[in-house]
Every structure is written in C-alpha cells, then in structure tokens.
Amino acid sequence: MRRVLFLVVWLAAAAAGAADNVLLIQMQPGGGYLVWHTEGESRLSDDEAMALEVTARPEGGAEMQTSAGPARAYETSDGVTIRLSAAQDDKALLIDRDNCGHIRLWHAAGATNLPEDQITDIVMSAQPGGGKRLTVGRYHVKAFITRLGVTATLWLAPAR
Questions:
Q1: Is 38 in contact with 103 (CB distance < 8 Å)?
Q2: Which residue spans within the chain are E strands per DSSP?
Q3: FRET partner for 102 with CA separation of 20 to 30 A, picked from 1, 82, 95, 133?
Q4: pLDDT tens profile 34-45
Q5: What are phi and psi of 51, to 5 degrees?
C-alpha cells in the first residue's frame, strides 16, 4: 500500500513540475520578446489544427468552429498562427512541426511568466545544440536555437 501511495504522490509531483516546462522565445523587430508556451488553456486536436492550417492566409482564413470556439488561421513569417476569439487568456496558437511532420501547438499564454531580463539571459545563452545550463529565478534552464526562435527547457532548481 505504501508503494502505491508513494507512486501516486510521485506521479502528481512529476506532473506538476512538468507543466509548461518548455518555452519558445521569439525576438520582435522593435525589441522585446514574444514568448510561447507548451501548455495553455486553449486546446485543439491535431485534426482541428491541420484543418485550420490549410485555410491560413496573411489576412486570415475562413473562421471555423472548433472545440475551443471560433478560430481563424493566419499565415505569418513564422508559419501559421491560429487566433481564438472566444478564449479568455490563451487567444493564439502557433503551429510548429517536428522533423517527422507531427504538429506541436505553442500557446500565447501559459503558467511560466518570466521577466524580460531573465528572458534576455536565456536568449543570450542559447546555442544550436543547447547552451550552458543556467539558473534563472527558481528554474534551471537549457536553451536551444531553432528555426522559430529559442526554445528553453525549464525545470525547478532544488531549494538551497
């Protein structure tokens, strides 16, 4: 029984620590950063995201009803962005694809919100194969340069 209880507590702690553990940071032309999150309140299936992706236009594709409410896809220099007009906070999703073509959705709003000076430290540490591990606030961070910007993997630093 103790083992089962331990396993349940461990799984819950691991799930809580894994929430929003990767960020995509994009430098903006006028300065500052746009930060995308691996997790957010808006949820779309891969099928919904792909259906929206094919309708994307620079001025916005046709509005479609999705499980997250009305959505419209926009073609941008970074790829396809989905706008969700009915979402409370997480009003945009960025479509990314891995080398195998699998869809990954980046969320405009998430749980990890770092100040701009910490984001700058992360961006400055990024390397194509992964930069040096940093400690930023309460997180350890490893940053990678990717085609869409800097991806930063975060995990909680042990308490001192």
A1: no
A2: 22-27, 33-37, 64-66, 69-76, 79-84, 92-97, 103-107, 134-136, 139-146, 149-156
A3: 133
A4: 999 999 999 999
A5: -65, -40
Report how far residue 145's alpha carbon sits from residue 155's, in angstroms, rounded to the nearest whole number: 18
Report the 10 Å Cβ neighbour count for 96. 19
Inside any domain, residue 69: yes
Instruction: Flag whether 32 is in a domain.
Output: no
Say how many domains are in the chain: 1
State residue 150's pLDDT score. 98
Contact (CB, 8 A) for 86 and 14: no
What is the spatial distance between Cα 150 and Cα 37, in angstroms, rounded to a whole number? Answer: 12
Average pLDDT of the segment spanning 85-101: 92
pLDDT at 14: 40
What is the domain extent for residue 65?
Answer: 40-109
The pLDDT value given to residue 20: 57
Q: What is the pLDDT of residues 13-34, one digit of tens each?
A: 343 444 558 999 999 998 899 9
Amino acid at 120: T
- 44-53 residues labelled b (16+ CB within 10 A) or e (exposed): beeebbeebb
Tokens 């430290």 sit on residue: 121
**Element housing 102 (H / E):** none
pLDDT-above-90 percentage for the chain: 76
